[in-house]
Design brief:
Protein name: Asparagine--tRNA ligase
CATH architecture of the largest domain: 2-Layer Sandwich
CATH topology of the largest domain: BirA Bifunctional Protein, domain 2
Distance between the termini: 37 Å
Number of strands: 18
CATH class of the largest domain: Alpha Beta
EC number: 6.1.1.22
Bound molecules: 4-amino-1,4-dioxobutan-2-aminium adenosine-5'-monophosphate
GO biological process, one term: asparaginyl-tRNA aminoacylation
Radius of gyration: 26 Å
Catalytic activity: tRNA(Asn) + L-asparagine + ATP = L-asparaginyl-tRNA(Asn) + AMP + diphosphate + H(+)
Main location: cytoplasm
Number of helices: 14
Amino acid sequence: MKTTIRKIGNHVEETVTIGAWLANKRSSGKIAFLQLRDGTGFIQGVAVKAEIGEEKFKEAKELTQESSLYITGVVRADDRAPSGYELSVTDFSIIHEAKDYPITPKEHGTEFLMDHRHLWLRSKKQHAIMVIRNEIIRATYEFFNKEGFVKVDPPILTGSSAEGTTNLFHTKYFDEDAYLSQSGQLYMEAAAMALNKVFSFGPTFRAEKSKTRRHLIEFWMIEPEMAFMDHEDSLELQETYVSYVVQSVLKECSQELVSLERDTAQLEKIKAPFPRISYDDAVTFLQKEGYEFSWGEDFGAPHETAIAESFDKPVFITNYPKDIKAFYMKPHPEREDVVLCADLIAPEGYGEIIGGSQRIDDEELLRQRYDEHSLSVEAYQWYLDLRKYGSVPHSGFGLGLERTVAWIAGIEHVRETIPFPRLLNRLYP
Ligand code: 4AD
């Protein structure tokens, strides 16, 4: 019977065949321990000389790392095995013999591993991260579908910027200038006026010159946008959504979290509501902590970490100064100098995972912002139209997938949270 490692528990004491690669091996005079992986999981195969015969045993001992095999054996339940099962090998055939696989079980430097990203993805750690990434995406679709959201796909090639012009990726669109999308938000606002509650999930691009553990050039964002929802409604949705995703990963990816040695006690605590601190109070806090920081500046990573350290859940920093935020954010009704926005900062130093706000819904005010930000009315006329024809209060946010994966999986650098990271100095492989 053909099966996969993931489903092998359904076949205890039965003989099964799996297609697999040899991740690693150890052998003594009489037994060969074959670490097998098939993409759905990892399992140890045990080949005993007395059982498979001298010739097959010799072949097993000579198997090379990453050779592909069909391997047959009897499934044994084994509490000591990380997966709970072992395979008593009865036979195998080599599909393809790999020679000199470059990533050996010894330690390798990061640059070497990044150069071999196409192979590094096969490692147990990278496998676990990709499975968790997938679970976050799956739980996201499940959550928003349950909440009545419609998935909408905004364009990637755009004629205008959503998040300022400093990190735009420029390209030609035949004879016109075009940019790779920094955020689908403006289009999602149009979609919300057509479909009420919408969300997108797609790649976004920022020509960031920052070389930090939190920045990618190409990253994936989940961007919900909701008609008739104000800033407060949006914060409640964000904390419910993030809690849902964390609890889904805890439930569905327990093996992966163990193999990554993630402290799951930290994740168990992630349940709505989340604490909130205003920008004003955050500034006072930082000053008390001895940081040289004045009102009106934007937080850097050390500031965010210092603020987040006071909490064991993600914390919303709300109502930032208008001058350091995007043009489309709605002013606070009682304070002209701050806007109805929040960044959600993950605990344990993983930084900002969400940026969101209530959007300006008044045509005149938006025109004024166009002037202040030197945005051409022609390029943004369609966005103004949303305030012209049945404008409504609306809010939305963007969650950065890779930073969220880094936090939940407990990974130091975002480069390991996306299959093929695009970094400041890396477009290969
Ligand atoms: O705060 P940002 O810039 O918000 C927006 O783009 C809004 N238009 C979203 C919206 O309201 N629809 O980015 C949102 C999130 C950040 O919190 C962060 O998690 C992630 O996107 N992010 C990055 N992730 C990796 N590398 C980068 N260079 C990132 N820049 C932003």
